Every structure is written in C-alpha cells, then in structure tokens.
Amino acid sequence: MAPISNDTGKAETMDILFMTSCGSEGLPGAKGDDITEKAASGADGREIKKFLKKVYQPAENGTDGIDAGPAQKGSPGQPGDPGGSCGSLILEVKELICGTQLTIMADGADGGRGGHGGDGGRGGAGGDGGKQLEKYQDQYPEARGGRGGRGGDGADGGDGGPGGNGGTVTVRYGTSNLSDPVFVSAGAGQGGPGGNGGNPGPGGAGGKDGVREGAEPSYGPEGPAGAGGGSGSMGSPGDSGNIFIEQTEELR
C-alpha cells in the first residue's frame, strides 16, 4: 500500500499491484490439412460373354484397391508460437509504507499449443468381380470382389511453443513499516502442449462379388486402416527471472 491524502487531509492507504510488461501467451499452431482424396480403385474383373477356341473363359476376380501412399497422408500440425518474455522493472523509493505486501508480477507467458495433425485419406476401393455366364454358374465359382486398399496415415501433431522468460525486477527502498514489504513473482512460462496426431485414414471398400442374378450381394474384404499420427512434443519451459530486493541506507 502507498499513502495518499483525502479531502480531510488525513493519510489513507490503497492497495497497489505492479504488473510489468509481460508477454502474451503464444498462439496455437495451425492444424494440418485432412486428406479427402482416396487412392485409386482396383480394376473390375473381366466378364467373358464369348468362347475362346470353343473353351469357356470364366469371369475374373476384381483386383485389389491401391494402398494409400504419400499423397493420402495428412499434413503435419504446425508448432505453437513461443510465449512472450517479461520485461524488466526497477523501483526505487525512499519510504515504502504498506498495509500489506506490495505485489509485483513479472512472469513469462506460456507457449502456444501445437497444431493437430491432419487425418489420412481413404484407401482405394477393390474392383468388382465379373459375372459368370448363367450356363456356367454351377461349374465355376463366383468371381470375387477385390480387397480394399490400406488407408493413409495420419500426420504428427506439431510441437508446443516454448514458454517465455520471467522478467528482472529490482526493488530498492530506504525504510518501510513492514519487515517484508515486497512480494515478487518472476516465474518461467510453461511450454505449450503438443498437438494430437491425425486420425488414420480408413481402408478402401471391398469390391462387389460377381453373384448370380437375384442373389444377396456380397463384397470383398475392406482394406485395413492406416496408422494414426504421433502427438507433438511439449514445448520447453522458459527461464525464471531475476529478483533483487534491497533495503539500503542510500535512500533513507
């Protein structure tokens, strides 16, 4: 508290809180792009409607869908911005008259969160199986639809931003009515948390089996999902500030 005067001329006190020019909290990193484009589909199986040298050529299975590649991998999340560091404060007074401790805040700001990784794209769909000629449906098995391709991988999350540094605070005073008149906080800002990894892309759909007319439709196996992205690392903390509090004869 510091002394002031009111209209009666009597001395009163009021609370004072010093806030140094602390930096702002770091902004979160941008999220990576999700991939909506899927891998190429497999080719449909051949449907033969004629004979080759009087020998029936059975319909073929559909080919498997193409596994997702680099084009179907999500984009990585961007790192979080660093937290702002605090400035410096020098306070010199002859008399420090307080009802309670004078509080000075000079903490560094926290780093921003890392951006989340982008999701992977879908694997290619399997090709449809061809249909046998009705006359040979009992002689030859149904052509199967192809397996779906593997889904794309999710991208890694971005790293958290580093925390800001605490400020340097110097307080020098001559006399005070309190034995411990000043409290100073100049802590380090915490590193921002890492972003979450992107979701794995789903596997491609299986191709349609070449079933006979009127039969219940069936399909080839769905492709496996891709791998999920890893989480980003937590940002490093800032450095604690320096605090100097001195009662000196020079200011009495």
Automatic annotation (TrEMBL):
Name this polypeptide is given: Collagen-like protein
Location of the region described as Disordered in the Swiss-Prot/TrEMBL record: 60-86, 109-252
Coiled coil: none
Lineage: Bacteria, Bacillati, Bacillota, Clostridia, Peptostreptococcales
Regions of compositional bias (Gly residues) in chain numbering: 109-130, 146-167, 188-208, 223-235
